[in-house]
Amino acid sequence: MHEMVKGGNVGLAALSEDTGSVILSLGWSTATGEGDADVSVLLLNADGKVRGDADFYFYNNPAAADGSVQLLGKAPTADGSEDRVSLDLTAAPADVERIVVAASRYGGARFGDLADLRMTLADRAGETLLGFTIEDASVETAFIFGELYRRGEEWKFRAVGQGYESGLAGLATDFGIDIDDDADADDADDAAEADGRAPEAAQAVAVEQETSPAPQPTVPAQAAPASAASRRPRTAKKKVTLPKVAKKPLAENDSWRRARLFPVSSLKSDREREMRATSVLLSVIAQVPEFGRRLTAAFGAPAGRMETFTEVSLPHGGNAPKRPDGVIRVERAGKLWTALVETKTNGNPLKSEQVQDYMDIAARRGYEAVITLSNDVALDGSPLVDVKIDGRRKHKVALWHLSWAEVTHHAQMLIRHEGVGNPAHAWLLQELLHYLQHENSGCHGFQNMGPAWVPVRNGIDDETLCQGDRRAVDVVESWERLIRQVCLRLGGELGQKTLPVQRAKRGTDQRSRRAALADQLCQDGRLHAELRIEGTTGILAIVADLRTGKLRTSVEIPAPDQGYPLTWVKRLVRQLAEAPADLHIETLVEGEGGGPRGTLERLRPEPGDLLPRDGDRITGFRLSLFKSMGSTRGNAESGFIRSVDEAVDRFHAGVVAQLERRPVRRAAE
What we know:
By secondary structure, this protein is of the alpha+beta class. It has helices spanning 183-194, 270-287, 289-296, 352-365, 404-418, 423-437, 453-461, 470-494, 510-524, 565-575, 600-603, 640-660, and strands at residues 2-4, 9-11, 21-29, 38-44, 56-57, 69-77, 80-88, 98-104, 115-122, 128-134, 142-151, 154-164, 179-180, 232-233, 305-310, 314-316, 319-322, 326-332, 335-343, 369-374, 398-403, 498-500, 526-533, 540-545, 550-558, 584-589, 597-599, 618-628. Helices cover 25% and strands 26% of the residues. Helix 4 links the parallel strand 19 (335-343) and strand 20 (369-374).
């Protein structure tokens, strides 16, 4: 990998032969896991200006119609999260000279509060080509990480690393972003607040002029126009989403079944489920551009005309022909991008020898990728299948994995939150979602903690499980897969970014990290996880205590900076008026000792019982709910996976959502 220095540039062709489509990843981390930023992309012409508002891509306008730009969202990493952007350079309009990639913080947060600011660029096959680390961030609230620019027929990358203390508001107009001052701006503010963001997060990013050979100095705060803070950019055109309240059905009674485009009641065997699921998904990918591009861009596919196929027979040397479950082909400028698809449903695992055959076929035929699709969730450093790559072959084939939970998540995000441009496409996605969530589809995501679950639980119970036991590592990996799936499901339902928080130093080996967690499990019998839900207070913590059979979900909220402790606890109890009565509240104080605690039911008449009797300084409050843990390893009513889902859902709806509501002021007595 080519390491860049600030101001340096390099031609992409010198790094790889396959850079028509690239993936940019912007990452950062914090000690608490709470830090975050928003990625944005600007397309600039020869004058260093956007051609129009549509050339500004951010969370509310995530994709270009021509597929040249697509924000892929955040993905968890070993030490935080990274935001990914897909750029199809072959689809970039001819009058676009520069593509600027930036990030911004909101709510007064600064980039100096984040650690490990880093950007990487990977080619179509997923191989990381270059990296750039920003080490001098301090008071900036907006940062240009890097830019791609044309030099003749070649695209080059420049490591910019330019920060702006004045934030996005002072920079927007410098690059031609159209700012509205009318009533639409107020609507944008309301939408931003409802989405859990500061209004400034919806403003434009300014970038340096193309003629500037080196980054400009940090812009002082007073450089921002006085009126910029009250102005907002135009958002994307209104799209079609599902109504929040379903229309009253016309059926005479509940026994009438609605006609479905993708029926599932007749499915009987795993083979039938795999064939039907593959055909259903690939047909919707080909017919709904937003959905198809959203999935395939992450695999390095270009934007273009897409066709999908099932049960294609392909020769395999002197052996019998192989029949992958599906094929995706994208045509762009007379060139074809091809991916073979191997699908599994229910708990059926992927087979290494089968995937190896498809990798070999793809390499011989010049195909670009093999995509595996199953209910399992891929983890960094723990591949689902082991395949050998022949380094002597010049043509590289990328191996990607997609879980059914990810497919469901993206469908939910589009039809319930972000919208699509065509009512018929929204209906198609709704039919797909109904199919995936049907009990007979076999596409329900991660459903089994694995064969090591019961022996590990028994070993913890009778204290015979020793550190270094491989079975404990298997349980830790299954737990991590489950937590990632919980994030996908919850994020799709809420329309908010939900990611697992992993506290580890950058560069930590994944196997070593999981081995350490497995040793901790053997020692204290607990599995730990943390979730960060965008726009909510604190980190949602989950602890599965295998010794006691209890699940604990909790969140810590800091004490206010101003006011009196008695006022704090009264306000907190009022905020939790609709929370479960068995909610545990604990006062956090300075020092090693704990503060007062009690259930909400007991504290409602006497909130003052939360005040420390010895006058210790209150630092915050911990809110917790407890639930019995499922005993079996699967997703049945008595299963561990089902109990985790229910515990997270109950805690979010009953506690976290209550905290995010504005407290009702009581009339003066």
